[in-house]
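Chapter review: from sequence to fold.
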Amino acid sequence: MHLTKEPLNLLEDVLLITPPFTQLNTPYPATAYIKGFLNTIDITSYQMDLGIEVILNLFTSDSFHEIFDSVKTQDLALSENAQRILALSSQYVQPLDRIIAFLQGKNQTLARLICTDNFLPRASRFEQLDDLSWAFGEMGMQDRAKHLATLYLEDLSDFLVECVDPNFGFSRYAERLGQSANNFDELYNELQQELTYIDEITIGLLEARFRESVPKLVLLSVPFPGNLYSALRCGAYIKKNYPEVKVAMGGGFPNTELRSITDTRVFEFIDFITLDDGELPVALLIDAVIHKVENSTYKRTFLIENGAVVYKNNTARQDYKQAQVGTPDYNDLLLDEYISVIEIANPMHSLWSDGRWNKLTMAHGCYWGKCTFCDISLDYIKIYEPVAARTLVDRMEALIAQTGENGFHFVDEAAPPALMKAVALEILRRGLVVTWWTNIRFEKNFTADLCLLLKESGCIAVSGGLEVASDRLLKLIDKGVTVAQVAQVTRNFTAANIMVHSYLMYGYPTQTVQETVDSLEMVRQLFELGIIQSGFWHQFALTAHSPVGQDPEAYGVTPHYNEITFANNDVDFTDSTGIDHASFSYGLKKSLFNYMHGIGFEMPLQDWFDFTIPASTIDPYYIEDCLNTEANLSVKPTAKIVWIGTTPIVSYFSKKKRQLATLLFHATSDEFTITLSEEEARWVIAILPALSPQSEQLMTFSKLKSSYEEQFEHFELFWFSKPLETLKEKGLLVL
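The token string follows.
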């Protein structure tokens, strides 16, 4: 590609870039966070998500006309799948622009046509379609059409990988080159090659942006290995064509992988690498680059000095508190052009790829911070700092006003139950209608009543780590939960109509074959009882910054270290058990796929594997027995009592010389009544407003008891009476 510079107009101080690719349906939030922070310090900035912009330039009928015509002129040995797609090239090209518009929510009537049998051409991605249809029944028309359209795009993606660019992927690009590359050689050599077809689109978009405005500082956000290659391509273009512009890289990938970097060649593409929270490092870079402050200081920043990589952390300034970082700012991003896709016909899985979500964090870091497989030594997890509920909901309202979207994904390491409760109450207090979901720990504080409150405030789903469904291993992991506790908590969420996704792990150090089989049996029971709706198995990975990585001998692990000059996080290792845990991968994932579709529960566990496994030692009713454990009925005096129902309609009557009252409550889907003495009914009617989430100060259990006992006796008898039990079932919550 021929690159030229045009007359320039300096408008923004900072350009924020998310390189290809993260996700199609919503922006990765890092640049929006930093832009929101820059607003608080009066620095002008512009942000672009090159991921969605490249996809929208690539997946057009014009681009694929060009791609198919080019492939036809080459003498390539094509797979049968690619031959089929090429033979149907006209049928693939013709609907492409309309399919993209449909997935952007702009052409919804197309759903009926997409769902007909012969509208979209079909290659290998459609092979399991019949199984999915049988397992799920009839999806809604729009969702089914999105799923079919997604498979159609994935067919085209397969063709791109085989015939145009082997590194292509919708949510990652050249990921293999960035994954735990202990040295920079392979990636460096790849960056010396000619621009690929995808690179040309990426650089063309970047060049167009620079024609409009040349920034003084470019910040590249690299959350994943699949963004790294394109980030460095962008850096190379900028440094070659605009050497006066400084380029910095930050984000999840540098935070975890580049803490030991020494290879100076990386800095041929960028000028700085910052670690952990970006606000203060960026503010200091702005001082150095834009404000030209003499004797500049830095925070957690790598740069080149005297021909060597040096790490500068020489400022006396402290990191910004969460209350000071501002509200994420999504301006500049193409919010109405993101693409909603449904890769797997599973309502929980679709949350990651369907719909545009505003992303926020309830708290910085993890309030638990003990799990031995996690990088808890790093600041972004180790330093826990919650955001006040009112501040958080202020930010939600600001984002609703800015984006027009009422959906929120809280991207916490693990959202704290107490803060979730406070946020839910604040949402209800303000009368907001929002949809939200987040990541949690399956801990005991998620009571049935708290789950009902969360649902009332708009919570639709949670994801959390069950990890290994074995109490011995959960204790070794220091997860702070038991399998029985997880079962009870997931039941509470499911009963409140909140979907549950569980992260599952196999191959943890010292895990035996028997424990893997027993863990699968636990998972089978959880799905069969319907208290988990979705899950994902992943094999344990040893990371350098986790407790296992820092003291491997204590966990029966022998690490195999390489010389580190570039990336360092995942570490090869040998487990003292000598078990080939990878051999379980296919069977675990196949069984889970079926369980998520509600089938296969009656099959012996052996049938999922092509090698002999031992029989499970878990009682077939273990999880059911856990759920039948009687709940603790005692209530703490400080517990908050909240009524999320409606105001009743009251009618008074006499019966056997007693003055009674019937309270009729209308709920959204039904109605119910309770009968009390006239005096108790009047007390209930008077007290309900004080129990509303809109109340200025929520009433505690002890104050509720005192209020009752000002007029009556034996509050405990009243609290456990049949009318009150009915109210507790219908929205009288103990929090």
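Two observations follow directly from the output. The first strand starts at residue 14 and ends at 18. The CA atoms of residues 272 and 434 lie 39 Å apart.
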